[in-house]
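User: I'm writing a short report section on ligand binding and want a predicted complex to refer to. Could you take this sequence and S-adenosylmethionine and write out the structure as tokens? A short remark afterwards would be nice.
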Amino acid sequence: MKPDDVAYLTHMLRRRSGMMLGRAKPEFIEGRLAPVMRRFGFKDVSGLVAELRHGRDALARAVTEAMTTNESSFFRDRPSFDVFEQLVLPALLTRRGSAKRLRIWSAACAAGQEAYSIAMLLDDHKLAAKGWTIDVIATDISAEMVARGEQGLYGHFEVQRGLPVRRLVDHFSQEGSSWRVGENLRRMVTFRPFNLLDSFGWLEDIDVVFCRNVLMYLDHKAKVGVLDQISEVLLPDGYLMLGSVETPQGLSNAFDPVPGSPGLYVPARAALPRQAVG
Ligand SMILES: C[S@@+](CC[C@H](N)C(=O)[O-])C[C@H]1O[C@@H](n2cnc3c(N)ncnc32)[C@H](O)[C@@H]1O
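Assistant: Sure. The structure tokens for the complex follow:
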């Protein structure tokens, strides 16, 4: 690959998604781009980049999606889900007991495993039968991933990673060699393509934001922007869950860690205007 082409791709990717290619090897980039080249009929990366330079948006979108890392699994980083199940959910069920409404956002949902894991924990409480309105909003920059989440169809290997057998039996039905998420969970989750660099204006009053294992791919400016916007859509007594290697430290003063609760953050007191006043 020509250094010029790598430089162009690096810049384009960063501008469109905040993602950094870093020191990615040419073979890695070519491997990720191979399906896009086949789909759009390019023999090599140079031809593809030449076309990108002409500003073909569909191609640029496909390239951006192809460069994403969509690694995920059900109940990934189990300690975070334990915190959600044992601390966050009981607190919110008490606090929202009269409104009976919960809005949880899986902000980089990949193929939906995170959103459905959340839905399974919510389903344990049979909230719909108790009159609660539950919205799990699942978004990702990759339209392909979002479509997979909507389908709710997972391979054998995917359901074997992290999903307890009891939950597989309770919430999935087998279709050939795959497993389909049941209707009661799918009713709770709404999928939508969304780029975290865009305005969060359509999101509001969120009780919990799961923004896990995505900041680690973004550049400093994008990380700051994402945390800043999360602090605006999150309710003052809401919660933020980050991935185990991620932290707002050095990026945002809007969140405080909850000691002893891996990955869990709450809006910082100083960041709340109504508490800062007086
Ligand atoms: C490693 S997966 C994390 C999935 C899940 N949150 C988890 O922890 O298992 C990272 C996801 O972030 C998405 N992503 C990367 N940049 C993004 C952006 N700018 N806006 C929205 N999603 C993005 C990728 O498409 C990918 O599906």
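A remark for your report: The radius of gyration is 20 Å. Residues 17-19, 68-72, 76, 108, 110, 114, 140-142, 145, 195-197, 212-214, 217, 243 surround S-adenosylmethionine (CB under 6 Å).
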